[in-house]
Amino acid sequence: MDDCIFCKIGAGKIPSAKVYEDERFLAFLDINPVSPGHTLLIPKKHVDNLFDIEEPLYSEMFQTAKKLSKSLTKAMGAKRVGVMVEGFLVHHAHVHLIPMNHGSDLNPANARKAEPAELTAIAEKIRKQI
Ligand SMILES: [Zn+2]
Prior knowledge:
binds zinc ion
């Protein structure tokens, strides 16, 4: 979709702090992270609602999330990776992968704007673990 920011990021028309990319998916750091390493995983193909993604893409997306969760855990020294899905702000399916050490870490109210240099450094750290 022409006016979709995640389609533009997926196509590389808008820069992002990339964590992982293949033919079907892109993972990049949220610019307003809830915790350091907060990653967004998107399909490159535009679908509004996550649960409307057809198979096998849907399962492949969660296999990719699983792979990324291991890298995020290692890179960020986190105990777990939390998952959030809501999609009210950007109508392009995405899964939030949030490194966390306590249950209370999974809180959108913790979001704060990150500096581009910080995002670049964290993305590099995570890519090394993939
Ligand atoms: Zn889109």
